[in-house]
Write a sequence for this structure.
């Protein structure tokens, strides 16, 4: 009789597994970087930086007809960060990158709750920031609607950082995590409609930032609104993409934001099966210097490394309330063969506002990226060079004579994404 129960249990388990789908995959991504002017102008007297970091991820997914569950564990390891036989991770970088459940509410509607990536359009305002080894995520509840070529997402978040999970009610709801536009509350609405040649989206987002009084006690919330659209059009070998965003309200520090904007236009042309060309301009408003307010726009939670040069001189943990930016750029992508490609991009930077000296010219950056796919893994190599103008030295607070004559950055990255169970 016991054997019959065991067989019956195994059959039921097999039936359940057949109706569900379990996947287990991972990522191993070591990256070596030579930094001699990455993110900022390096002084001539300073030594170049060189190091290796590795991102390791383990991703598990489970899907049935009614729900999906996904968990992504990650650690970012800098080679040599831990001394020998250290019983703990000194860098404390192990984290749950994603942990969410998506529940089907109807034929076209679902809700996705938990830690997740919010990535839309070209990732200018909301993106996964996959270049950064740690990536970017949000703790949020998402209501999703999709039918045919129309989609609507509504996201809500209320963040808290209390240290005692059982005592947060009496302790209040002050949110002490600050910096990098860490928000206490977030409400977001995103709509997108696709037509034959045109795709248009609308983003409305409000972020609430915790404020503190002179005694460091919680003192209300500053709310910053971001609204805008992304348009994408394709006709034969030609393509166009445009961004238009406005910001108003109050940013961190209760600073009034008035008339802040981002405008971008990019054109692409497929010259042949192996050559794609691009050109564009992006204008981001800067601070006009008025006391207690700013006209500076910040792209918040996007994949900012993707824009304004790979050397990250602008809007990557920096340039948050500065002179803005005018970015003219041209690019060429070459498909060398079935497994390799080369990208070349040139960018010229100017301030949207003038510096104290009246100077606007900031410099020119050249970016090169080579990709080679192998069976089961890929190798990516990059090199960037910054040719700084007088305004860049003034902006970064270093004289030309004190800065190194060459400002450059080189990197090499190996990407392996094994599929352990499920998937293809």
């Amino acid at each position: 009789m016991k054997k019959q129960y065991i067989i019956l249990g195994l059959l039921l388990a097999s039936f359940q597994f057949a109706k569900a789908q379990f996947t287990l995959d991972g990522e191993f991504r070591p990256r070596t970087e030579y930094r001699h002017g990455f993110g900022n102008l390096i002084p001539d007297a300073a030594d170049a930086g060189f190091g290796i970091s590795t991102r390791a991820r383990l991703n598990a997914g489970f899907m049935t007809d009614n729900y999906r569950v996904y968990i992504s564990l990650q650690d970012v390891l800098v080679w040599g960060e831990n001394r020998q036989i250290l019983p703990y991770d000194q860098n404390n970088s192990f984290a749950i990158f994603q942990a969410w459940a998506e529940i089907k509410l109807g034929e076209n509607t679902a809700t996705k709750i938990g830690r997740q990536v919010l990535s839309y359009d070209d990732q200018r305002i909301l993106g996964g920031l996959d270049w950064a080894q740690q990536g970017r995520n949000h703790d949020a509840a998402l209501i999703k609607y999709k039918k045919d070529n129309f989609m609507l997402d509504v996201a809500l978040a209320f963040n808290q950082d209390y240290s005692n999970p059982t005592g947060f009610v009496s302790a209040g709801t002050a949110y002490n995590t600050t910096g990098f536009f860490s928000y206490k509350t977030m409400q977001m609405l995103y709509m997108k409609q696709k037509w034959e040649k045109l795709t248009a989206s609308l983003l409305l987002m409000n972020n609430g930032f915790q404020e503190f009084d002179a005694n460091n006690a919680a003192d209300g919330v500053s709310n910053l609104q971001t609204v805008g659209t992304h348009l994408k059009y394709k006709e034969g070998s030609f393509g166009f993409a445009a961004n238009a965003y406005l910001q108003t309200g109050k940013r961190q520090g209760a600073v009034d934001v008035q008339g802040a904007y981002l405008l971008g236009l990019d054109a692409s042309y497929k010259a042949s099966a192996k050559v794609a060309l691009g050109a564009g301009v992006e204008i981001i408003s800067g601070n006009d210097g008025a006391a207690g307010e700013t006209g500076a726009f910040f792209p918040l939670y996007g994949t900012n490394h993707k824009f304004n040069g790979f050397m990250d001189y602008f809007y990557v943990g920096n340039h948050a309330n500065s002179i803005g930016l005018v970015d003219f750029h041209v690019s060429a992508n070459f498909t060398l063969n079935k497994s390799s490609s080369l990208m070349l991009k040139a960018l010229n930077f100017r301030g949207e506002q003038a510096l104290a000296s009246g100077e606007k010219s900031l410099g020119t950056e050249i970016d090169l990226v080579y990709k080679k796919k192998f069976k089961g893994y890929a190798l990516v190599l990059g090199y960037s060079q910054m040719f700084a103008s007088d305004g860049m030295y003034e902006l970064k607070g270093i004289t030309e004579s004190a800065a190194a004559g060459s400002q450059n950055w080189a990197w090499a990255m190996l990407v392996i994404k094994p599929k352990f169970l499920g998937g293809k």
